[in-house]
Sequence to fold (426 residues):
Amino acid sequence: MKMIRRIYLAVIITLISSTTFAQGSGIWNFQWDMGIGTGSTADFVSDFSVRGFAIEGRGYVSENVTIGGRWAWDVFYENYGWTSETSEDGTTTLYGYNRHYMNAMPIMVTAHYTFNSDKIIPYFGLGLGTYYLETRNLLGIYYVQQKAWHFGLAPEVGVIIPFGQTSNWGLNINVRYNWAAKTMETDQQTWINPSIGFSYYW
Amino acid sequence: MIMKKFQWAISMLLLSGIGLLSSCYPNDDITNSETDIVMTQFVDTVHFDRLQTYFLPDTVLPIKSPDDTSTYKKNPYTDLIISTIADNMDAFGYQRIMEPDSNNLPDILVIASSLKSTTTTVWYPYYPGWGWWGWGWSSRYYGWWGGYYPPYYGGPYVSSYTTGTVKINMTDPWNPIEVKGDTVMPVYWDATITGLLQGNLIEDRIKTNIDKAFDLSTYLKKGK
Fold:
């Protein structure tokens, strides 16, 4: 085969292969969410969390823009051990085995801009929706609990690395900042999710 | 083809769901000792440095509601509770008066009391519902059959736990006060100790927690 035909053939095959991943109808993401509290969330529970999971579906509405939805569940836990707390007036002291928990469940509509390519696919985007947050402050077998739905925003940046030019699967790595607004009865909560997982293009 | 594409998605979803269900409150199992709580309160206008002597009855009183007419049962840890309180009071410099009389009145009266409480929870994992009517074919009876299927209850499940509470009150019976029409002894210091009443280390925990209540209350030592 002449060189020019080989080049043409190589280009055509490459284009077809890259479009397998670069632009399908949508993307499914399955991710392991890690987390680190910031602000007042870090005051409540500062330990790094490895207990989190997220599912996201995105659909292309144009060549680079996707609209989708995301659901996740992040669990934060810190064991403070034996602690004593004294009231502001100094007359009451409480001593016990203290643990803090925060369960966070974001449910969001997402929009992303994807820089399509056949090697790596960077993207950035924003989630808008609600967070269900449940915090527990346990002393022994007793606890004080707060539960509320919060309005929230979650900007994120990430990258998808395809497992090959003909594969519909890829590695997805991203970082997301979560902001759950304060409510009438509960404080705002903020944390960062470094996440890693799989993306499936369809 | 489409189903095959979604098989991976569904598999991932299920596997993740299993992990998810167990992650809500990790490390929630604690030892019996870790259920113990000690709380102390005091009146900050009291001059503890002026209080030198005390009387401590050798009985742990039961905490009961006024309507409770059940027979009093002696607390099995009475001797331990009384001796631990006395050791701590003595270490703080208080002098115990064993037999007070009109010529030898103590400055304060220290009272120990206790309560044993059992909490029972009953729950049903399924809604009982109303059952359903079913129809089907049975080759055995050569015909259509129908019948009523009663609801499946799947329960109930019962769990219970028992907690023990010890209270220590430092009171002044010589200077009663009026509270909502009642004449009461003012309480200058209160310690409450509570925890699960189970396991083999109950006596150790009682002593440790009474000691802790005094450790948290070093203001009682003033002037001694």
Chain A has one domain: 3-201. Chain A touches chain B at residues 28, 30, 51, 53, 55, 73, 75, 77, 79, 84, 89-97, 99, 101, 103, 136, 139-142, 168-169, 198, 200, 202 (CB under 8 Å).
